[in-house]
Specification:
Strand content: under 5%
Number of helices: 5
Shape: elongated
Radius of gyration: 21 Å
Length: 135
């Protein structure tokens, strides 16, 4: 059960929510290239490279799709849309989970705000990780 929950929340957030940062600017990772596939690293002009990039329409479509796929559609981890827990043991466990997630979130935020952190990685912050996959 833990593996399923982790895959549907944390793992999905790690792979999904940074897509726009990477693919939102299509020259980083163009979805489509036109013309002959480059086989050499040298001998290409800027014009050659620009000619192979997708059209404005395809570029905008790529940006829209990656923005939608990078959007969070449900509540954060531990913040349930519907209350299914009513017995005292379960309610207490959920409360403890939310407290633990707050501590984890604070730790991640502190690390990301540290001036020595070269590459902040907010995507596994429980405030950002959704309860489930929603596409």
């Amino acid at each position: 059960m833990s593996a399923i929950i982790s895959t549907c929340s944390v793992a999905h957030a790690a792979a999904n929510f940074n897509q726009y940062d990477e693919y939102g600017f299509p020259p980083n990772y163009p979805a489509i290239l036109t013309g002959k596939i480059p086989v050499e690293k040298e001998g290409y002009t800027d014009k050659d490279v620009l000619h192979q990039l997708p059209s404005k329409g395809v570029t905008l479509d790529t940006m829209v799709v990656t923005r939608l796929l990078s959007s969070k559609g449900t509540n954060s981890l531990g913040q349930f849309e519907v209350q299914y827990l009513y017995d005292p043991v379960s309610v207490s466990a959920a409360k403890q989970l939310r407290q633990d997630l707050k501590v984890i979130s604070a730790t991640i935020k502190a690390r990301n705000n540290d001036p020595l952190t070269r590459f902040p990685y907010p995507w596994l912050d429980p405030d950002i990780v959704p309860n489930s996959i929603s596409i």
